[in-house]
Every structure is written in structure tokens, then in C-alpha cells.
């Protein structure tokens, strides 16, 4: 008894000692790890950059705990506004993130041919987009960009006008059914955008009973929500943790839906190609293009720009100027399929699928958010809406309801300024990031960003930089009058990014936005029940309103 009692006493006293030893051991290891980290050049340089104080080991990771996307957005904006600094850092664990908001520093990254690699965060897109243009790197990115960018050449875009007009008419019929009641216009913009993309870039016609656009758009939005949660709930990032969550099985289902549409689209297009090839017919798109060129009321001169974006620096204008010839004047998927069948081009089915998924994602959610923000702003700013309508009256005085031509869109200068101003205040892609493999010495201050860190570039912050924008928070389309743009830094405004890795769909997006928005404004008066200050923004991969894009519409009476 006595012996047993003594043993159990000894065991009981041994246990706390063991746990205390383990605890002290871990603490000691973490302390050594912390001091070792602090001795690294990477961290030493990082520590010189202003930003919220990090905790040992975890850095600033705790800031994300318990916050939803709306709170996150508020927190990030508060940090930005309170810091008054153009350079800010945060640590996620030992990983250094540096946010830049001065155009001169941004140019060092976006304008460079060296810092082209996307940051680690984009890898979360991989199960969905594979190594499509958005995330690919090196030679693969370069050769695919060379192939894809010309498929959005102005001559191709012109041939899309009938599809834009047709889908705009379908949209108007849908909107007509919700006249007089408040509704979320994003739902309509999203479905329409997918349908238009399928028919233009992919060349696949929608059948009457087909609900693909809506289902696909919903799946894309749900996928974005999952990816976004994983971006800021950093403990969900590693796949070995994520795969055990409910979200992972939801992601599998969503990807099945998305990828099955992609495969269907590619198969249909490939079948068409083989039928055409067996009959030795020319490309459908080349034919459509010829018809459209004959059809245009007033075709633009060869060197006429699609819009006024002369102050965005990217490679798209070079593609326009150095005309790439007939061979490449095929719409996106036609070109990819023809390229895959041409000897010498190493383009596999998987690569086509990745690029189709990328274009469907990039081309859809961005434009849906952009058009919904424009309609929200027009709903708030009735005077601006009236000016847009006055411009449309000038253009369509001969026939208010006729289809919109490419030439008409070139005359929509005020509407263009409204779109650009909306994209300034509400950039659909609010932030982009790059991994830097070489040190970057900033030009605006004496700071060096060490190789290996991630650079965050926020359109949302830079587009309101007080040094570059007068009354930065005020909606004013005249910010984009040519004389105002002339002296502004190129990298003060980059809703489509800029430099060699800018958006390949920029011209496509602007053209489509003009046709859709002008069509809505010709038929309806748009009103927003909420004021701009009450918009609840949600930090997401694509910037959205958490409160929905609520508007009301009524028939426009034109005199
Ligand atoms: C308002 C509409 C749009 C906005 C605001 C927008 C914005 C952007 C931005 C900011 C990037 C750079 C992303 C990054 O570096 O992380 C980008 C890239 C890209 N966008 Fe867009 N985009 C729009 C519409 C479109 C459309 C309509 C398409 C295609 C039909 C498209 C296709 C792409 C592709 C393929 C890339 C990757 C380019 C590369 O890395 O070389 N986008 N877009």
C-alpha cells in the first residue's frame, strides 16, 4: 500500500514536471527561432519598413482572426489611412508583405520585365485555372501571352458587336420584368457577362433553354469566396489542412461544374473545327469578321483607338499598331484550337482548358462587378446619368433604339469617363501582388524591399492617393478629361494593371461595358435607394458590395 501510494505520488508529481519541461523546451526553441529570424538580412530590411507591430513568430497574422471580409476591408483601410505612408509592411508568420501606393514605386514593379512572377497566393487558383495566363510564369507565360493578346485585337472586337447587342437586348427584356422594384443588378450582369463571353471569346452559342450562364456565374462566385477566405484565413492555406474542411468538398463540386462547362465548350469547338477542316472551309470567325467589316456604318480607321486609354502603359497598343496579320485574327478559342492542330505549336488540350478557364474567370466576374458599380453610381448621381443620356441622344438622334455600332462607342466619351471614374473608386480587382526575386530599392524613400518578399499593389489605395487626385473620395468623371490625364503619373491609375502583365481583355471589357450600359440607359432611368457612403464594400478577390448592388429602374421617356 505504502509503496503503491508513493509510486502514484511520484507519477503525479512527475507529470506536471514533464509538461513544464516540454513547455519550456518549446518556448526556448521558439525564442531561438525568433532571434535567428531577426538576424536574417531579409527580416532586418523588412523591419525598417513602417507597419503595424508584429508579434514574435506569428507576425501580424492574429489581425485576421474573427474578421469577416467586410471587417477585413475596414481594417485594411483604417491602417492605410492612419499610416499616411506610401509603404507599409505586414508579416504573416515570417513572411514579409510590403504594400506600395506611390505610383513612382509601383512603376518599378508593374513596368518591369523582371518582376513578372505572381506571388504564392495565386497558387490557390491552381486547381481551378491550372497554369493559365493569370498565374503562369517564364517562357510559358510569354508564349501564351503572345498568342492570346492578339485574339482581343480591335478587328476581332468589332466582329463581336452583334453579339454584344443581342445579349444587351436579352438583358433589357429580363430587366423589364423587375421594373419598379429594388433588385440586385449584379445577378443580371453576371449571367449576361458569362453568356457574352461564351458566345464571343469561345464562339459557343447559347440555346434558349440553357441556364449555363447563371449556374456558371454562381459557381465562379462561390469559388472566389472560398479562395478569398483561404487568402486571409492563412491557416486554411496549406492543402493538407484545407482538404479536411467542408469547404474542400464544396470546392470539388464547384470545380466539377466549372470544368465540365469548359470541357463541353472546347469539345463543341473542336468538333466544329474538324467538320470545317474536313470540308476545307475557312474559319467561322474570319467569315464573321468580313461580314461585320462590310456592315459597319462607319468603320474606324485602321489606327483608330478603341478608347481613350492612351495613358495606360501596356503592350496592347503595340499589338494594334504592329498589325499581326490575318492568321492571328481569330477569336480566342478558335485561335487556340487552330494553334493546337497546327504542327509546330505545342499546345495541349490541358493547356487550352487552362486558358479557357482563365479567360472565363478573368473576363466574367471583373466586368460584372464593374458594370454593377457603374449602375450603382449612376443611380446615386442623377446629374451624371442625365449627362450620359444627353450624349447618347446626340449619338442616336436618328434612331434611339437601333443597334449600337463600334463607331458609336468611340463617340461615348462621357460614358467612358464615367466608367473610368467608377473603376478608379471601385476597382474590380482591388489588389495585385508579385513575388520579387531581387531586392528592390524604392525611389520615393530610402528603403529596400528584400528579395523573397511579396509586394502588394492596391488599385484601391493608389487610385485615391491625395498627391495625384484632387478630392480623391469624390466621384467626378471629369478627372478623366484629357487635360487632367495629361500630367498625371501613368501608374496613378491602373484598374487593368499596367506594364507587360496587364489585362489582355481591357479593350474587350471597355467595349462591352459601353454597349451594355448605353443599352440600359437608353431604355431605363436608374435609381439607387442607398447613398454612396452606405455602400458596404467587401474585400474579396473581386471587389463587391456586401449589401448587394441594389437599384430600381423605370422606363425612360425620351423627347
Ligand atoms: C472591368 C473589367 C476587367 C478588369 C478591371 C480587369 C483587371 C485585370 C487586372 C488588374 C489584371 C492583372 C491581375 C494581376 O496581375 O493579378 C488582369 C489580368 C488579366 N485579365 Fe483582366 N480585367 C477585366 C476584364 C477582363 C476581360 C474581359 C478579360 C478577357 C476576356 C480579361 C482577361 C485577363 C487575363 C487573361 C489576365 C492575365 C494577363 C497576364 O497575366 O498576362 N480581363 N485583369
Walk me through this protein's architecture:
With 559 residues, the protein is an alpha+beta fold. Helix content is 53%, strand content 8%. It contains 22 helices and eleven strands. It has a four-stranded mixed β-sheet with strand order 1-2-7-4. Strand 1 and strand 2 form a beta hairpin. The protein is globular, with a radius of gyration of 26 Å. The N terminus is likely disordered. The structure holds protoporphyrin IX containing FE.
Which molecules are bound in this entry?
Answer: protoporphyrin IX containing FE
| Average pLDDT score | 85
Q: What percent of the residues sit in helical stretches (DSSP H or I)?
A: 40-55%
Class of secondary structure makeup: alpha+beta
Radius of gyration of CA atoms, rounded to a whole number: 26 Å
Total helix count? 22
* Strand count: 11
Unreliable sequence segments? 1-6, 291-306, 324-328
Shape: globular
Q: For the largest sheet, list the strands in their spatial order.
A: 1-2-7-4
Largest sheet: 4 strands, mixed
How far the N terminus sits from the C terminus, by CA atoms, comes to 106 Å
State which percent range the strand residues make up.
5-15%
Keywords: Heme, Iron, Membrane, Metal-binding, Monooxygenase, Oxidoreductase, Transmembrane, Transmembrane helix
Binding site for heme: 503
Cofactor: heme
Organism: Dendroctonus ponderosae (Mountain pine beetle)
Amino acid at each position: 500500500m505504502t509503496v503503491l501510494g508513493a509510486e502514484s505520488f511520484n507519477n503525479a508529481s512527475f507529470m506536471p514536471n514533464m509538461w513544464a519541461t516540454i513547455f519550456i523546451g518549446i518556448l526556448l526553441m521558439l525564442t531561438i527561432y525568433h532571434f535567428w529570424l531577426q538576424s536574417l538580412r531579409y527580416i532586418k530590411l523588412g523591419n525598417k519598413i513602417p507597419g503595424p507591430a508584429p508579434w514574435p513568430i506569428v507576425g501580424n497574422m492574429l489581425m485576421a482572426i474573427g474578421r469577416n471580409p467586410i471587417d477585413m476591408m475596414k481594417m485594411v483601410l483604417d491602417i492605410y489611412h492612419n499610416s499616411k505612408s506610401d509603404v507599409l509592411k505586414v508579416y504573416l508568420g515570417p513572411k514579409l508583405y510590403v504594400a506600395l501606393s506611390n505610383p513612382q514605386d509601383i512603376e518599378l514593379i508593374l513596368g518591369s520585365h523582371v518582376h513578372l512572377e505572381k506571388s504564392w497566393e495565386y497558387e490557390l487558383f491552381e486547381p481551378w485555372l491550372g497554369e493559365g495566363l493569370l498565374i503562369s510564369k517564364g517562357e510559358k507565360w510569354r508564349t501564351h501571352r503572345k498568342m492570346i493578346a492578339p485574339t482581343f485585337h480591335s478587328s476581332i472586337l468589332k466582329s463581336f458587336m452583334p453579339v454584344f447587342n443581342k445579349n444587351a437586348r436579352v438583358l433589357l427584356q429580363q430587366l423589364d420584368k423587375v421594373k419598379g422594384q429594388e433588385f440586385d443588378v449584379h445577378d443580371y450582369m453576371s449571367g449576361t457577362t458569362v453568356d457574352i463571353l461564351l458566345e464571343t471569346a469561345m464562339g459557343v452559342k447559347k440555346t434558349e433553354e440553357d441556364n449555363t450562364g447563371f449556374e456558371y456565374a454562381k459557381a465562379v462566385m462561390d469559388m472566389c469566396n472560398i479562395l478569398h477566405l483561404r487568402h486571409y484565413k492563412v491557416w486554411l492555406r496549406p492543402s493538407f489542412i484545407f482538404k479536411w474542411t467542408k469547404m474542400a468538398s464544396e470546392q470539388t463540386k464547384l470545380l466539377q461544374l466549372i470544368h465540365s462547362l469548359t470541357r463541353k465548350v472546347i469539345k463543341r469547338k473542336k468538333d466544329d473545327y474538324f467538320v470545317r477542316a474536313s470540308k476545307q472551309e475557312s474559319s467561322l470567325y474570319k467569315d464573321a469578321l468580313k461580314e461585320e467589316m462590310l456592315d459597319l456604318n462607319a468603320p474606324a480607321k485602321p489606327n483608330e483607338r478603341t478608347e481613350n486609354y492612351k495613358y495606360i502603359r501596356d503592350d496592347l497598343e503595340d499589338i494594334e499598331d504592329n498589325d499581326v496579320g490575318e492568321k492571328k485574327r481569330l477569336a480566342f478559342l478558335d485561335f487556340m484550337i487552330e494553334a493546337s492542330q497546327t504542327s509546330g505549336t505545342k499546345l495541349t488540350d490541358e493547356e487550352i482548358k487552362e486558358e479557357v478557364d482563365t479567360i472565363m474567370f478573368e473576363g466574367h466576374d471583373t466586368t460584372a462587378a464593374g458594370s454593377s458599380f457603374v449602375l450603382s453610381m449612376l443611380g446615386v448621381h442623377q446629374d451624371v446619368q442625365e449627362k450620359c443620356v444627353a450624349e447618347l441622344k446626340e449619338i442616336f438622334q436618328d434612331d434611339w433604339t437601333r443597334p449600337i455600332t463600334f463607331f458609336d462607342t468611340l463617340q461615348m466619351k462621357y460614358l467612358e469617363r464615367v466608367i473610368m471614374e467608377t473603376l478608379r473608386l471601385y476597382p474590380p480587382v482591388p489588389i495585385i501582388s508579385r513575388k520579387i526575386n531581387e531586392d528592390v530599392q524604392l525611389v520615393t524613400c530610402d528603403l529596400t524591399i528584400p528579395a523573397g518578399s511579396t509586394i502588394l499593389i492596391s488599385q484601391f489605395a493608389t487610385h485615391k492617393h491625395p498627391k495625384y487626385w484632387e478630392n480623391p473620395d469624390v466621384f467626378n468623371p471629369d478627372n478623366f478629361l484629357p487635360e487632367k490625364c495629361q500630367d498625371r503619373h501613368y501608374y496613378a491609375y491602373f484598374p487593368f494593371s499596367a506594364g507587360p502583365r496587364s489585362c489582355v481583355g481591357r479593350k474587350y471589357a471597355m467595349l462591352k461595358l459601353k454597349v451594355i450600359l448605353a443599352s440600359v440607359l437608353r431604355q431605363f432611368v436608374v435609381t439607387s435607394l442607398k447613398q454612396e457612403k452606405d455602400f458596404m464594400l467587401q474585400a474579396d478577390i473581386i471587389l463587391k458590395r456586401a449589401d448587394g448592388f441594389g437599384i430600381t429602374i423605370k422606363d425612360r421617356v425620351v423627347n
